[in-house]
Amino acid sequence: MTNTDLFPIGLDRLQSQLHRFNEIPTFHITAKIEDVNNIHEKYTDDIKVPCNLTYITSDGLKLFSNASLSIGGRSSRHFTKLPYNIALNHGDRLEGYRKFKLRSCASDPSYMRERLAYDMLYATHRPASRASHVRIYINDKAIGLFLLTEKYDDRWLRNEYNHGEIYDSGNLYRAKGALPKSNIFADLSYHPENTSFYDIYTVEGQAKHENSTLDALVSFTKFINDQLQWQLQNPNELDTSVDVWETQMNVKGFLTNMALEFMLGSWDGYLENTQNFYLYKEPTTQMMDWIGWDYDYVLGSGTVKMERMLIGNYSDFSGMLTRPLTKALLAIPTFQDLMDAQVDAINQAFFMPRSVFPIIDAWAEFLKHDIEWDQNLKPVRQGKSFSAMFGQGANGKGVDSLTTKHQTGMSFPLDFDMGTAADFLFRINSKLPLNLVMNGPTKHASLLGLKEYFLKKSDNVKHYYDTIPPQ
Fold first, then answer.
1. Residue 88 has pLDDT above 90, yes or no
2. 42-46, 209-213, 357-361: which range is least confident on average?
3. Whole-number Å distance between alpha carbons of 304 and 445
4. Overall average pLDDT of the 385-411 stretch
5. Contacts of 352 (CB under 8 A, 6+ apart)
6. Cα separation, 191 vs 3, whole angstroms
7. Torsion angle, alpha carbons of 62, 67, 73, 78, to 10
8. What are the residue ranges spanned by the domains of the chain?
9. To 5 degrees, how large is the angle CA 402–CA 408–CA 413?
10. Which of 118, 98, 214 is nearest to 158 (CA)?
11. What is the mean pLDDT of the segment spanning 207-224?
């Protein structure tokens, strides 16, 4: 986006060749057969195994020894096509990065939803991973087409905020998700009386000159709560708090992320499900910055009521006016106007069919042979994806995979729909033609055609702003 007043540049990213957009590199991983079998059979456990990696591109190859391989994700490890984490040996780097995530795209038969989401974050100058497709082989066996993304840690912060140069980074706080049985959610609410509510946050990257506690995060939640209380007492003076907010966090950046959650129909982030985000205390400004993560459930795919994802007024999007941080910010007229302008600009730039359909067509043509290849491979795990829902235990041994540590923290999004979820379970265990998943209608409640989503969402947003233009 060229409008840096509306979308300020919030990163100083290392320029590297990690993500190649005119070819599909290959990761060839070698490890002991028994180690590979072990992580595939015990896919709900966190097991790291040693491996070697060969990275193959059109202009050469790179060899890495003493790396590690593990199963990644939480719910995504219950697909038969498993996601992976790779960590290179200390001191080794691939185009400036050491840790990577290999996303399976198992829920998205277009293989491009998450990539498009990360492209939009980059285009709006938000700190986030980039994403690109890679082919994966393990011990000469074809595993499939994956999406390569970056692991957020101290090294990533240096690459994202300081062009890869030495950098005294701040604390990076991760929202792990929810503990619904304990009624604990990572919504940034303030709980001075019970610190166990903060157990769902962790420090992922530690500042050299700060402790590794959650003190700064707790203070930020107190600030949000204090502002909500102040707003109740001063309803006619809300705009006077703009400067106060802008000393505490990168407000424009955060609202950009929320505008994208709304436009993408993201139901697994802060608004719908209080997870998949990081807060970074940027050391230069001492302000909190928002970093989004995990965008596989966007653009019309998932277990929610799809009509709710397609609405044109962001104020009606579930969670927007009830989560503490968005509730506080969007009560302020100045920030309402900013959000309106950002949503409208994102719609005009990224969602109009004249802009996005040629991009979708180009990616579909580029990926179609690899998608066909991937869908005809035998999965590394036998049975059905989310087998516990079909009366099968994890590993076929009677262990309920929906009660493992990677599943008990799962919460239902606000617009969860049981009928759509049932359709989702059926759909992910079947194959759909690429033309159908691109164009729609798919005849699945859990999946809109990719172009279908963009067309309906852009029309609804445009209609809303044509009827009620931004102030």
1. yes
2. 209-213
3. 9
4. 48
5. 458
6. 38
7. 100
8. 26-155, 167-299+324-350, 353-467
9. 95
10. 98
11. 84
